[in-house]
Amino acid sequence: MPRRIKLEPYLSLAEMAARHDSAPDPVSREHWRILYWLASGTKATRVAWRTGYSTKWVGLLARRYNRDGPAAVGDQRQHNRGAAPLLTAEQCAALTTALEGPAPDGGLWSGAQVAAWMSAQLGRTVRPQRGWDYLRRCGYTPHRPRPRHAPADAAAQAACPKASPPACRPSSRRIPTRPLNCGRKPNTGGA
Q: Binning pLDDT at 50, 70 and 90, where does residue 181 land?
């Protein structure tokens, strides 16, 4: 049987409705709507059905509100730090020093070569894209200019004029056409 979730009485229903109306973003607005319905006695499954969220998420939001109060309502993704960087500050400095020297093959450093260097430092495999990311993060960009088409030699073009076909003129002769017949006679309706 669906249960009703009990909320801590931090705010009254009128205050929750006012917070819903003055919410700065849609995520906060939807959270206040969910909490308003829960506080007014609506069952969690009904609230989930109305909002399109899962009952698990409705319960998590209610627990977060009960634990932290009104400050827990809203989009909390900005508090997510993300993954830790692959290289420490000392390893980044060592990479910068290595990039100032020649590449292992004697040419320019590539993402795959930086990834191989990082793999040796970290003791695990690193994908070439991460090597390219760290190459760019250290301020290195491709040094080879993008290829350009060579300009054509005007004298050679003048010596070999292009033989254009004569312009087509519309024919005065009418081309006979016949109606398209795919093997079926058209339906005339009453004949």
A: low
